[in-house]
Design goal:
The structure is a single chain. The protein has 371 residues and is α/β, with parallel strands linked by helices. The protein is 38% helix and 11% strand. The chain has 14 helices and 7 strands. The chain has helices at 2-16, 62-74, 92-97, 114-124, 127-134, 149-157, 180-192, 245-251, 260-266, 270-277, 285-297, 302-309, 313-325, 338-347; strands at 22-27, 85-86, 100-110, 139-147, 163-169, 329-330, 335-336. It has a 5-stranded parallel β-sheet, sandwiched between helices. Strands 6-7 form a two-stranded antiparallel sheet. Strand 4 (139-147), helix 6 and strand 5 (163-169) form a beta-alpha-beta unit. The longest helix is centred in the N-terminal third of the chain and has 15 residues, at 2-16. Residues 289-371 form the PRTase associated wHTH domain. Residues 96-238 form the PRTase-CE domain. InterPro entries: PRTase-CE, wHTH-PRTase_assoc. It holds the Pfam family PRTase-CE.
């Protein structure tokens, strides 16, 4: 699923680039995995203090799986690429010579946005790359399979990134289908049972990002410690950072469904929520109306809608395009039209139930006459 999602996003991006140009694919590495990062005051500069194409650790994390995907696009060495995608080991001179128009940074998941931001910063510290960007000759694009809401905001504010493409929203405490009181109780439990040895003290994972997204390849460090602590006597859900094989078989590609009735009720559509709970609408009509209700309630973006409904941004785009084609919304700016509000009003109507007010009886029935 992750591999397919990333591949589709990369291929979609490739179709947008001008004919005859190239783009280089780079796996996003953690700063801690680059030699020399532990030196005080040291700041890495891509293609100067390290090369993005340097061999990675013999025991890689998720960047190993991403590297295998990139190899499918670029081949095994620079100069022998089968398509427009350049190998990560391509040097700066060849990037210029081969008319590279984009650095495409690839990762499977971003929970806090910190790693993406730091890696992009390493690229723009290179004077030539910084110059290319200032002239508009090159863009830095991040392609991720899943990104949390907090990571999306951080990456969007990062001046080193020009564009972010995401296949699916990653759930977190912020976007979980909980009430405020339920979220407060969950956070209290996570902090109460956090191991005392943890220096952060939050118990909510790296940088307090409180992630709820895991992959069969591993458990990210922004998942609350209560779920992955290896302290003695603690019955954890995950085996540290390892996703247990029995859970892989049991959960598979599980994705929780949103309570759409609650979503539209939070969008000040109480009567429409009752129609949802009564089972009046079926998919995809229910999702279409939920998108319309969210847009009509407050200022929205495709990303916000994706996280509220737990669907991909691609699906959100399809629903918005359909609503725009029906005349229910405008896309620029994203607003509900008068026809859209009329449709919401019409959808609130519940089906009338007619009854003869007959009283039931458990006595046997015998006909009294023949016609």
């Amino acid at each position: 699923m992750i591999r397919v999602g990333l591949r589709e996003k990369i291929e979609s991006l490739g179709s947008e680039l001008p004919s005859g140009t190239h783009a280089v694919l780079l796996p996003i590495l953690s700063a801690e995995d680059i030699p020399g990062s532990n030196q005080p005051g040291h700041r890495h500069v891509a293609y100067t203090t390290f090369s993005p194409g340097d061999p990675i650790s013999s025991t890689p994390g998720s960047e190993g799986a991403v590297g295998n995907l990139i190899r499918d696009f670029t081949g095994d060495r620079p100069g022998r690429e089968p398509s427009m995608w350049l190998h990560p080991a391509t040097d700066v001179y060849d990037l210029y010579r081969r008319r590279c128009r984009a650095f495409v940074l690839v990762t499977d998941y971003s929970g806090s946005g910190t790693q993406v931001q730091r890696y992009a910063d390493m690229l723009v510290r290179h004077p030539r790359i910084r110059s290319w960007r200032s002239f508009g000759w090159i863009k830095i694009v991040v392609v991720a399979y899943a990104v949390s809401a907090v990571a999306h905001r951080r990456i969007a504010r990062t001046s080193s990134v020009d564009r972010l493409l995401v296949a699916a929203p990653a759930p977190s405490f912020e976007t979980a289908d909980w009430t405020k009181e339920e979220q407060k109780q969950v956070e209290h439990i996570c902090r109460r049972y956090v191991p005392r040895s943890k220096s952060s003290g939050t118990g909510l994972g790296f940088a307090g990002s409180a992630g709820l997204f895991v992959m069969h390849t591993g458990v990210p460090n922004n998942v609350p410690e209560i779920l992955r602590s290896r302290r003695k006597g603690w019955y954890r859900f995950f085996d540290g950072r390892v996703f247990p094989s029995e859970l892989v078989a049991e959960l598979g590609a599980y994705v929780p469904n949103r309570d759409l009735g609650r979503v539209v009720k939070q969008a000040s559509q109480a009567r429409l929520s009752k129609a949802f709970d009564a089972g009046r609408f079926r998919r995809p009509i229910d999702l279409l109306l939920a998108v319309l209700a969210l847009v009509g309630h407050s200022q929205q973006t495709e990303t916000l809608i994706a996280h509220r409904l737990n669907i991909s941004e691609t699906e959100v785009q399809q629903y918005l395009n359909l609503l725009a084609g029906l005349g229910f919304v405008t896309l620029l700016p994203l607003r509900v039209t008068a026809a859209g509000r009329a449709e919401l009003q019409f959808s609130k109507r519940m089906d009338r139930v007619a009854t003869a007010h007959l009283e039931g009886s458990t006595l046997p029935y015998y006909p009294q006459r023949l016609r």
